Amino acid sequence: MPIYDVTIPISPATICWPGDPPVIISPEKTVAEHGYNLSRICMGSHTGTHIDAPRHLSHKGTPVDRILVDTLIGKAYVFEIAPREGLIIQPTDLAALGIPREATRLLFKTANSDLWGTGPQTFEQHFVHLSKKAAHWLVERQVKLVGIDYLSVDAFASDGVPAHRELLGAGIVIVEALDLSHVTAGVYQLVVLPLKIAGGDGAPARAVLIRQD
After folding, report:
1. Which residue among 148, 152, 192, 212 has its CA within the 20 to 30 Å range from the CA of 158?
2. Element (DSSP H or E) covering residue 204
3. Model pLDDT, residue 92
4. E strand residue ranges, 43-185
5. Which residue out of 46, 50, 56, 164 is catalytically annotated?
6. Is the pLDDT reported for residue 141 higher than 70?
7. Which CATH superfamily is domain 3-8+45-211 in?
């Protein structure tokens, strides 16, 4: 039963969305001076692999600490997808995947996965993302969790983050910045647990996939 950690490590080198706070990790206590190590960590709530809660775009939306755990743990489908329009996933691309009607957690592996290299990285403005119509298609399928392998389900220069609004407006949880580079398409048990930040709009999460044989 292979287990895959699909989490992006958090460090000062972690790629952040332009304008978001950078990651700062600084020692506050050290073994040499205090007998133990303790660090101060400063970063945005949408750093690394993270959850977007409905609260992200609406004060009335469900905050991250109120997301049901059974939404975050359970059977998930990983689909490899190469949009016909290059970087934009449309409903026709989703329909061609043969997604089972009972599938409620969908993770999309795209060419974005090639961006997670081992060396120094910079933010890539051109990445595969969902169109508003594709997001609406997922809403109509009544999924409850959607994940993608870069920092956003919307395009970098999108006007009003329409895919986010479609998904979060329907109460669908978004998982972004998954590292699916070492995962093949198939059925898995997903465990993705964000920090339980009271009233949070989102939170970094540890995400694991367990292959279902």
Report:
1. 192
2. strand 202-211
3. 98
4. 50-52, 73-80, 88-89, 105-109, 129-130, 145-148, 173-176
5. 56
6. yes
7. Putative cyclase (3.50.30.50)
